[in-house]
Amino acid sequence: MAAVRGAVPQWKLKDVEELKELMKNYQTIGIVSFRGVPAGQMQKIRRELRDKVKIKVVKNTLIEKAIEEAEEFESLKEFLGDQVAFVASDMNPFKLFKELEKTKEPSPLKPNQVSPVDVVVEKGPTSFPPGPVLGDLQMGGLPAAIEKGKIVIKDTVTVVRAGEVVKPEVAKALSLLEIKPVKLGLDTRVLMEKGIVFTPEDLAIDVEAVSGQFTEAYTKALNLAVNSAYVIPETAEILIAKAFMNAKNLAVNAGLPVKEAIPEILGKAYSEMMAIASLLPEEALDEDLLAKVKSVEVQKVETVSVEEEKKEEEEEVEEEEESKEEEAIEGLGALFG
Description:
The protein is an alpha+beta fold. The chain has four domains: 10-104 and 185-205, CATH 3.30.70.1730; 119-182, CATH 3.90.105.20; 210-276, no CATH class; 278-336. The protein is 52% helix and 15% strand. The chain has helices spanning 10-25, 39-49, 60-69, 93-101, 132-139, 168-176, 200-203, 207-227, 233-254, 262-277, 287-336, and strands spanning 28-33, 53-56, 84-89, 105-107, 119-121, 124-125, 144-147, 150-153, 157-160, 182-184, 187-193, 196-198. Strands 2-3-1-11-12 form a five-stranded antiparallel beta sheet, sandwiched between helices. A three-stranded antiparallel beta sheet has the order 6-8-7, covered by helices on one side. It has a two-stranded antiparallel sheet with strand order 4-10. The model has no long low-confidence stretch (mean pLDDT 85). It comes from Archaeoglobus sulfaticallidus PM70-1. Forms part of the ribosomal stalk, playing a central role in the interaction of the ribosome with GTP-bound translation factors. One of its GO terms (cellular component) is cytosolic large ribosomal subunit. InterPro entries: Ribosomal_protein_uL10 (IPR050323), Ribosomal_uL10 (IPR001790), Ribosomal_uL10-like_insert (IPR040637), Ribosomal_uL10-like_insert_sf (IPR043164), Ribosomal_uL10-like_sf (IPR043141), Ribosomal_uL10_arc (IPR022909).
């Protein structure tokens, strides 16, 4: 049966309904470009993302129709154009963006395409022996020559700049050198979650930097809470430990004989006793206390001796260095008169 003139083909209606279902049933939807992606790579992308992302390649007009019928997605229309696909996922936009970025693979420039980047070839040796390759590289604008049985690039050179059309001979030279300056894959144009639009500029965040900022903010907040004695689960243990140490120090300084402070009080008393004993004449001390005082004095003398020896060694090293400098100066004086 011939198609009714003016009737919309069923496959178009089906595609529009499928797009509307994706918009309705998935957390995040979006539009991506696949310009220049080879068919083999596209199949690989579909295979790897099958369980994470729904990818539907349809005409722009059908995506626009589906967007118009689902009014809350109207803002996506401005991102249509060129070769695009519709994507849907239950991942949040930031995770989905990372997955889409993983689809990009290094790729060579093709003849007559507009280069999106400056392509710089560094000087240095290649893996090629002398032969026809030399002429191909030179035709591509590279300062190639033969040195020690190898083809080398004599100088670093920019063979094509961003926005310029890639000449076939330049593309061939870059291909020979296995230079792949561009990445091809699904290029995110826009993602949307709960009516909020995210562009690549919003999604391309430095995860490590942001994580570091959160860590810094947490540390500052914790310090503020501790210093202001603000009790929350994260500060409770720290505040209790701080209060215990303050109470213990107070007990030690006040000489309160509580269980936790007794070892420090006794240690403080012993130190004060030894300090007083060291000021008294020997006949005022019993044998045990006198022996302890002399032991402390010997330790002090040994410590002072070690420090003096270290200081003398340092002075000797400085004198040797000064002597070497003087000899060097005298030598220069003798050399230049």
